[in-house]
Structure formats: C-alpha cells, structure tokens
Amino acid sequence: MMKALKRLFNTTRPYFESGGKLERLRPLFDAVETVAFAPALTTTADTHVRDSLDLKRFMTFVIISLMPPFFYGIYNTGYQAGLASGLDLGFVPVMMRGAWVVLPMLMVSYTVGLFWEILFASVRGHNISEGFLVTGLLFPMTLPPTTPLWQVAVGISFGAVIGKEIFGGTGRNILNPALTGRAFLFFAYPANMSGDRVWTVVQQTGKQAVDAVTAATPLALAPLAASGEAVTRILTDAGYTFQRLFLGNIPGSVGETSALMILIGAIFLVVTGVGNYRIILGGILGVLAVAYPGYLLNLTSGGEVARMFSVHPTWHLVMGSFAFGIVYMATDPVSAPGMNLSRWIYGFSIGALTVMIRVFNPAYPEGVMLSILFMNLFAPLIDHFVIKARLRKRVPNV
Q1: Distant-in-sequence contacts of 22-31, Cβ < 8 A, 24+ apart
Q2: pTM of the model
Q3: Domain extents for the chain?
C-alpha cells in the first residue's frame, strides 16, 4: 500500500515541479506528500542543530494533546443537547449527537482555512506550513456549539488572513490566529457568541421542537448575585459545584468545559517539551495573586466589594475558558515570549488580567481571550526589556 502510494507521488511530482503544468500547485502537492511521508530533504552544509523535534512533530504533539478535550467536547455537546431535548443520554447516542454538531464545524474550519493557506503559499511560492493543522482544530473548540457554519468560515478566514498571513505566515504572526478569529466573531456577531441560548443545541424531539433553552454558564450567572450575596452560593444552587466545573459536564464552548481533560493535555505538552510550563504556572499564579486579596477583602468587608471577589480563587481556574486558554493559546511559541523570565511575566500577566476583567467588567465576564491577545502585543516588548536587563549586567564584566 505504502509502496503504491510512494510510486504515485513519484510519477505525479514532475507535473508540480518547476516547468510542470501544475507548477503553481506545488505547495499543495508538498503538503499532501508530507502528511504521508517524512520529507526526503537532508542538510548538506555545516553547521546545523541536531534536534528530533521538527515543526511537523511539534504540531503532531499539540494535536495529540488536544484529543482529550476535543472528544470530551463532542460528548458534552451531545449530552447537553440530549438533556435539553429530552433524548436518550446513553454514551453512543450522545457521541453521535455531538459529532453531528462538532464535526461539521471542524470540517468547515479546515476546508476554508486550508484554502487561504494554499492561496497564500501559491502566490508567495513557499510550502504550506503544518501550523494550520493546529489552528484549524483549536478554532472550532473555542466556539459555542450553536455557531452557524457560515460564521465558522468567516471567523477562520479572519484568523488565518488577518491574524497570520498578513504578517507573513507561520512563525511571523504576533497574534494567536485562532483567538484572533474568535475575537472577531465575538465583536462582529455577539448575539451568536454570548447569552444563555448559544451553549446548547436543541434538536427535534418527536413532533415538536423546543424553541429555546436556558443554559447559562457559571460566569454568566455571576452578575446575577445581589449585593452582599456570594457568587459561589448561586453557582452551587444552580448545580455548578467545583467538582462539576472541574469535570466539565456543563454548558460552554466545545473544548473549554473540562479542566480535567485540559490538565491531561497540559501534562502531555509539558512532558514532551512542546508547552512551556512557565507560562502555565505563571498564569495560575497570576489568577491567585489577584483573586486571593480580593477574596480576603470581600470576607472582611462583609461582601460589599465586587461580586466576583466572593468566588473562591481556585474556582477561577476551572470556570470559563481560562484552563483552555492558558494551556493551548498562551503557550503558542510564535506569539509568546522566548526568554524564560519573560514567559513567567507573560503568563502571570494573563492570569492577573483575566481575573481583573471578570471582576470589574460584569458585561464581559470571560476575560482570558482578551488577556492573551493583549499580552501577545506585549510579548516582544517583555523580551526586549529582559534581554536588555541581562546585557546590562554582563557588559561591565567583559
């Protein structure tokens, strides 16, 4: 089988090489071939770094780490839809129902995104980067399951073109492409990206279909707390215990709900050296550093400060999309800083800003998306000052 496939690539390659009839589609041919076989190119000149972690293997590891939250997202989407529609909640029906919703979003994301990748690669005359394999999977996981497919296409187009290709392609973008597309949809079509009705797909049940379903996320319930009332109590009364938030059987975007599945992916990324643990731990420390003083202040003042300060700091780690964002978005090596100290500062700032947005902006309870994009802009500046500080110490000793 593999020999026949290799023979097919060898016989068709001349059509795509320089002077061939399909020369303009050479990037597409190379992209398809590299999926099946490792590149045959070898280095011929000194000096080069011997490292087994190339771009293809790097992206493969990220995709593997995304599998736990992705498959759980399919299950949770199907479960929430079945629960709202009064359908069978068995494992197989739930997975089939969730796949019917999530897989079309994934297919649109890859199809439209790869179109832009192929177009820009053909015009610029370079190979198609494997980086989009991760972006195309990340993007639909950040969306509510009720997002229309045409909006998925518009969002991934904005993320791929404006978030990456306009800067020169993979390795040159300053913003995370998946988050850029998500932010565009949030501000361009807010009715489809927020509110109680966007988190649960309601399906046909017999001769009738439910017109609407209220499925508020935990962060959406927080602003409903009265003055002096603890947000944690409202969440617990609604069934959102810490254990349930950690496991993820709640309404939310496709890939964000289960902190447990995200933790499994984070461990894989850190162990393989793909995800930098400094950014992840820095984000956790940033959340706790801002949330704990506010929580203590709320206790001593009798609950008269901002409502979200009444939430125990550890709840911020499992609520909303913080876990997903800090593990998969903030650790993007292109848009994150490169120095180790910079990564601590970068992660800490994302965590701190996330809590501040949640606390002081009730109209926009989820803050991790804007926090990461905001710190993407400052990542080069953080590296600049860290390097400058190190050089200031070294020069006098020369």
Answers
A1: 24/122, 25/118, 25/122, 26/122, 27/118, 27/121, 27/122, 27/125, 27/126, 27/127, 27/128, 28/118, 28/121, 28/122, 28/128, 30/127, 30/128, 31/118, 31/121, 31/127, 31/128
A2: 0.84
A3: 55-198, 218-250+276-396
